[in-house]
Design goal:
Strand content: under 5%
Largest sheet: none
Number of domains: 1
Order of helices and strands: HHH
Length: 88
């Protein structure tokens, strides 16, 4: 038990500076702008993710293009959720 708790504390302190930096950067954006950009990124990510699967089935997308499109969609979707859920 102490080993797992110690690992948990160390893992939490490793990510703490990254969280603080991210929260500070997101906190500098005014809330109305943050909400608008968050919704735009969320919608863009959802549209990209909905277009990836049919695009890879019916069109000759290369594997690299599929991966790039998938990661852009996931990043946009995730960052849109982060911007919408930020309290500050």
């Amino acid at each position: 038990m102490p080993d797992s708790f110690l690992q948990f504390v160390l893992r939490d302190t490793e990510w703490d500076p990254f969280r603080k930096i991210r929260e500070h950067i997101i906190g500098m954006i005014p809330e109305p702008v943050r909400k608008i950009v968050g919704w735009i990124l969320l919608i863009f990510g959802a549209v990209v993710l909905l277009r990836v699967y049919p695009g890879s089935l019916f069109f000759e997308l290369a594997d690299q293009m599929f991966m790039i499109t998938f990661f852009v969609g996931m990043f946009s979707f995730a960052y849109g959720i982060i911007l919408l859920r930020h309290k500050g």
